[in-house]
TrEMBL record:
UniProt keyword terms in alphabetical order: Oxidoreductase
Record's protein name: Nitroreductase
Annotated CDD domains: PnbA_NfnB-like (cd02136)
InterPro entries in alphabetical order: Nitroreductase, Nitroreductase-like
Family matches, as Pfam families: Nitroreductase
UniProt cross-references to PANTHER family, sorted A to Z: NAD(P)H NITROREDUCTASE YDGI-RELATED, NADH DEHYDROGENASE_NAD(P)H NITROREDUCTASE XCC3605-RELATED
Segments passing through the bilayer: none
Family: Belongs to the nitroreductase family.
Source species, domain of life: Bacteria
Domain Nitroreductase: 11-199
Length: 224
């Protein structure tokens, strides 16, 4: 069976962490956002907000987050991203993904400075032309996060269909109070993640990262 174009986008999508400086037209971004909001939503509640940070405010946010990261100042997250404790099977996947990333960059396992420098790029939104901060009202439960996740994936697939690259940035969730302070957001707006969006630099080594997915037998079963 020949793959449809949509299926090819699904199979080929990957996180981009290096971008060309070319701007993304506002009209194109609006189209992507409208397409993303077609994602399924329980009760059609459509939870979550996406905030584009630009210019002076973006620099202020990056500076504040980098200061937090460099000082290793602990901060209470709004939600638990990873399971606690992390099961060994999942820890192995996490380690393998990190190895794929740093191998593509040529950063050795014991090169702490190199790894920190790469991780710090999360807080610069990987220098993408579009930097988004994703929030959700604190009154939503897990179902709201599920719906918002489908919206974000819809946005990333729509971007791929238009030749754009993207990368979700969970690292922003490590410093929610800082994000709220800089962006002047109310306390009830929980910080979910960031999202970098733009024209991917396909020649950049970091964009050659390939991660694997668990075999279907691990997560799908048929009951009769």
């Amino acid at each position: 069976m020949q793959n449809s174009q949509a299926l090819q986008w699904l199979l080929q999508r990957r996180s981009s962490r290096a971008f060309l400086p070319d701007a993304v037209p506002d009209e194109l971004l609006q189209q992507l956002l409208l397409a993303a909001r077609r994602a399924p939503s329980g009760g059609n509640l459509q939870p979550g907000r996406l905030i584009a940070v630009q210019g002076r405010r973006r620099q202020q946010l990056t500076d504040a987050l980098l200061q937090d990261f460099e000082s290793q100042a602990p901060e209470q997250e709004d939600y638990a991203y990873f399971p606690r404790p992390m099961p060994m099977q999942l820890r192995k996947r996490q380690v393998a993904a990190a190895q794929a990333l740093y191998s593509a960059l040529g950063v050795a396992r014991d090169d702490r400075a190199g790894r920190d420098a790469q991780f710090a790029r999360n807080y610069r939104f990987f220098d993408a032309p579009v930097a988004l901060v994703v929030t959700i009202d604190s009154h939503f439960g897990p179902g709201g996060y599920m719906d918002l996740g489908m919206t974000l994936y819809g946005l990333q697939l729509a971007a791929a269909a238009m030749g754009l690259g993207s990368c979700a940035i969970g690292a922003l969730a490590s410093y929610p109070a800082t994000v709220r302070r800089v962006l002047e957001l109310p306390e009830h707006q929980h910080i979910v993640c960031g999202l970098a969006l733009g024209w991917a630099d396909d020649a950049a080594p970091v964009n050659q990262t390939h991660t694997t997915r668990a075999p279907i037998a691990e997560w799908f079963q048929t009951l009769e």
